[in-house]
DNA sequence: AATGAATGAGTCTTCATTCAT
DNA sequence: TATGAATGAAGACTCATTCAT
C-alpha cells in the first residue's frame, strides 16, 4: 500500500501542484496560504515541505511546466513542413487554444512572476526569452521571404500578439459566445492580416 | 501654517497616493506594507488613516485616477472632427503613449484588480466596460462605414489591441530603442493594417 | 492613563526585558518561546515587536545592560586611589558579588553568546575584550611594580580568574553555606595568593 | 560485507557520534537538526533512530564518553605513587591538556547540560560530583598534610580551578601563542601557588 | 539494518487596524 | 489634524519522531 497516493491514487506532489495551481489562479499567490493548499490537496504541511522547498518553489514548478509545454508546441509548429505563412498562423492559433485550455496557468504566469525569488525569476525570464525569440525568428523569416510586411519590427509584432494572449485570462469566459478555436482563429487572422504587405 | 504639507509643499494625501503608487507598482499590493507607505511619504500611520479608510481605499484611488484620465482622453479623440480611420488611429496611439508615460499605474491596474474589495472591484469593472464600449463603438462605426473589415467581431478587436497595451508594462523599458511615440505609432499601425478590408 | 504601564506601573519594555532575562536563564534562549515571554510579561506579541526588532534583539539588550554595569564598576575600582594590590583585590571581589547578585544575567551571558546574530556577537565580544584589557592592565601594573609575580602572563591570570566567575552560575546556590561576600573574599584571596611573588 | 560501515570503514554509530559532537559544539544542541547530523554522517534518519533512542540520547552519549575519560585520568593521577603536591599538580595540568585536546566535548559539556532530560541530567550531575569529590579529597589531603593552606575551603578551591578549565573553550585558540602543555603548566602553577601556606 | 514519506505541534515574525490622547 | 502604542489573527516554515516496508 503506497503512501504516496491517497484515495484517488494521484501522487502527493501532483495533488499539491494541482491544488496550488487552482488556488494561485483564483486568489493570487500572496492571498493563498500554505494551509489552504495542503487542505485542498488533503495532506499536511509537513508533506508539502517534504516535496517542495518553499511556497515559492511550488510556484516555480507551475511555471516550469507551462514553459515546457508551450515551448514544445511552438517548436513543433515552427519546424513543421509548411509554408511560413501557414506555420505562423498555426503557431499563433495554437498558443491561444493552449492558453484558453489552461487559463489558470496563464493567470498565474502573467500575474505572479514578480513573486518568484530573484534567481528563479531570472531563470523564467530567460526561458521566456527563448520562446519569444523562436517566434520572432518565424516572423523575420516571413519578412525576408517577402510574404510579411517589414513595416513593423518583428520584436514588436511578437509583443503585440502575445499581449493579446496574455490578456485572454482577463476577458475570456468558457461560456462566452466563442469557442477556444474560434477565438484562436480570429486572433491568428488579425495577426496575419496586420502582416500583409 | 498649513499642517497638510511638508517641506516640499505637497499636500499629505497626494504624497501618500504618490508613494503608494510607486510602491504598489514596485513590489505589488500585498508586498507593500502600510508602514512602508507612510515612511516613504514621510508621515505617520495615523495620518494615512485620517485621509484614507483603508489600504484598499488607497488602491481604489489609484484606479479612480487612472480610469478618469483614460476615459477623458478617449472621449476627446472619439468625439473629434476627423474621419473614423483617423480617430481610431489617434485613440489607439494615445492610449499607448499615456500608458507608457504612467507605467506604474498600468502595472498596478492590470495586476492588482483582484485585491480590491468586491464592491470596489465591481465598480472598477463597470467603468472599465464603459471605456471598452466606447472604443468598440468606434470600431463598429468604421466597419459600418466600410473602411474596416468585418471579418473579426469588434469586441475581439478591442481586446486584441488592449492586450498589447496591457502587455506594455511587461516589456517596455524607457531606455529601449523606441520612443513612446514610435511604439504607439507602430501599434496603432498594426491595428489599422489588421482592420484593412 | 498611560498605556505603557500595567497594574504594577512598570513600563512595558522593562517588563519584557525582565521576563526575558528570567526565562532565558531558566530554560536557555532557544527553549524560551516568544509566546512565553509575552505571557510572562503580561503583554501581547505585537507589543514585544513594537519595542524590539526580534527575539535576538531582546537578548542583545540583556547583554548590553550587563556589560555596561560591569564595565562601570571595574572602571571605578581600577581608578580608585589605593595601592595596586588593594585595587585588584577590590575589583576581583566586586565582580564576584555583582555576578552572584545577578546570576540570571551571568547564566545568559556565558551560555547564550552564540545565539546572537554575527554582528551583535562581534560587538559584544569587542566590549568584552575592552573589559578584559582593563583588568589585565591592572595585573600588569602590579607586576611592573614588583608586588605581583611575573611567572604567569597577565592574560592568562585574567582568564583564570574570570573562569571562576563564569563558573559561579554553575555551582553557586543562594541557600548554600557561604554568603556572596564570603565567596568573593575567598576567590579574591586565591587570586592574590597565586600572584604573590 | 558489513552494512554498518561506509567507505571509510567507521561503524555507523561512531560516525553519528562524531558528527553530532562536531555540530553540537559548533552551533549548539538546539540549533543542530537531526537532519544535519545524519547528512553530516552520511546516513539516513532511520539509521540514527535505529541506534539511538532520541536526539537527547546522542547528547547523553557524548557526555558519558567525556565523563568516563576524565574520571579515569583523574583516578590514575590521584592514585599515583608521588607526593601529594605532585599528584595535584599533575592532575590539575592533565585535565587542562585533555580539555584542550577535546575542546568540542568541553563546549558541549558546559553549555548543553540543561538540554538533557531531567533524569539524564541528574545522572550526569551525580557522576560529575563524584569527579569533583575525588579532586577535593586530593586538596584536603594536602591541607591535612600541611603542604596546602587551609585558608580556603577545599570545595571552593576545586570550583576555582575547574572554572578556569571550563573557561578554556571560550578563549583558547589552537593557533594562539601557547601550546596546550604550556597553558596547563601555567594554570596548574597558579593553583599550586594559590595553595602555598 | 535501514529507508524516507508523513505527521502535527510549535517557531518567530508581520501587519492592517484601532484608539486614547 | 495627527500620534504611536497596542492588538490579535494569520503567515511561512521547522523539526523530532514514527512506521510500513
TrEMBL record, chains A, B, C, D:
Gene3D superfamilies: Homeodomain-like, Tetracycline Repressor, domain 2. Transmembrane segments: none annotated. Residues 10-70 form the HTH tetR-type domain. Keywords: DNA-binding, Repressor, Transcription, Transcription regulation. Pfam families: TetR_C_24, TetR_N. The keyword Cell division does not apply. Residues 33-52 bind DNA. It comes from the Bacteria. InterPro entries: DNA-bd_HTH_TetR-type_CS, Homeodomain-like_sf, HTH-type_TetR-like_transc_reg, HTH_TetR, KstR2_TetR_C, Tet_transcr_reg_TetR-rel_C_sf. This is TetR/AcrR family transcriptional regulator. It comes from Streptomyces rectiviolaceus. The lineage of its organism: Bacteria, Bacillati, Actinomycetota, Actinomycetes, Kitasatosporales.
